[in-house]
Design brief:
Strand order of the largest sheet: 3-2-1-4-5
Low-confidence stretches: 62-67
Number of strands: 5
Structural class: alpha/beta
Order of helices and strands: HEEEHEHEH
Largest sheet: 5 strands, mixed
Mean pLDDT: 79
Shape: rod-shaped
């Protein structure tokens, strides 16, 4: 008869029942929340509201040179307003523009505003022009002014 050896049989003890984790696994929940945040941020970027304005394109053509029948309204940094280099105050701007455009078929002006002016000051000039019956207000950019100055022949 063969002897059977049992190794470690003297150290067998009664163990406690296993403990189960009763906590919920939140990793998938956090993943879903992060995806929703990304979707909402992308949707928010597309739904921002603002005022749609047509900004003039900067061109470097001969069209930027001044034409004598154009009406150019300029507002300087000190808030002085001029129509074709003739000074006018803001209260009388609308009436002066109205008399200029009474006989004209094309009712458009070009507005040059100093870059340091707040946009609200420029809007007052645009409102006066619209009140005078101007159909189109073209805003002259700094690049357009540089192109016009470069296109003019030196005297």
């Amino acid at each position: 008869m063969a002897l059977h050896k049992h190794y470690g049989a003297d150290k067998v003890t009664q163990s406690e029942p296993p403990h189960f984790l009763n906590d919920m696994n939140v990793t998938p929940f956090i993943d879903v929340l992060l995806v929703l945040i990304v979707i909402f941020l992308a949707a928010l970027a597309n739904s921002q509201q603002g005022m749609d304005i047509n900004l003039p394109l900067e061109t470097r053509s001969q069209e930027a040179s001044a034409v004598s029948d154009q009406i150019v309204v300029e507002m300087a940094a000190n808030k002085s307003i001029s129509i074709n280099k003739q000074n006018v105050s803001l209260p009388e701007l609308e009436e002066r523009l109205r008399t200029l455009f009474d006989t004209r078929k094309e009712k458009k002006i070009f507005l040059i505003g100093d870059p340091s002016l707040p946009y609200g000051e420029i809007v007052q000039v645009i409102d006066a022009a619209k009140g005078a019956g101007v159909d189109m207000v073209g805003i002259v950019t700094e690049g357009m002014r540089k192109a016009a100055n470069a296109a003019q022949p030196s005297e």
